[in-house]
Amino acid sequence: MGISSEMSDLFSSSKKSFVIASPAEDAKILRSKQCTQEGVRQGAKAAAIASVASAVPTLIAVRKIPWAKANLNYTAQALIISSASIAAYFITADKTILECARKNTQYKST
């Protein structure tokens, strides 16, 4: 039952790379990780702002506008708010990562 120790040793040793990375490659990998982390950070900020910016009008509309009161149940309200947040996250993260990658390309060429 399970993987024998010989097979697990074989799988674990195959994950190790035979190529030794140069310092330039290490710096490139570090810059790409920093770009990704910055994109996640900016995306989370944008999602938080978008959730508040979409939640306030949605909740006010559900209480004041008769059509919204009759047709927007709790699920619809949650979908409106979360779709705005998700869109803001992905758009902002994508733009931030692309901008950072563009800077790194220019950094490399100069």
How much of the sequence lies in strands comes to under 5%
Radius of gyration: 23 Å
Spatial shape: elongated
Low-pLDDT runs: none
Largest sheet, if any? none
First CA to last CA: what distance?
Answer: 57 Å
Number of strands: 0
Number of helices: 4
Q: Helicity level, as a percent range?
A: over 70%
Order of helices and strands: HHHH
Average pLDDT, rounded to a whole number, is 85
Structure description:
With 110 residues, the chain is mostly helical. It starts with a helix and ends with a helix. It has four helices and no strands.
List keywords for this structure.
110 residues; mainly alpha; 85% helix; Enod93
A few lines on this structure:
This is Early nodulin-93-like. The protein has about 110 residues and is mostly helical. Helix content is about 85%, strand content about 0%.
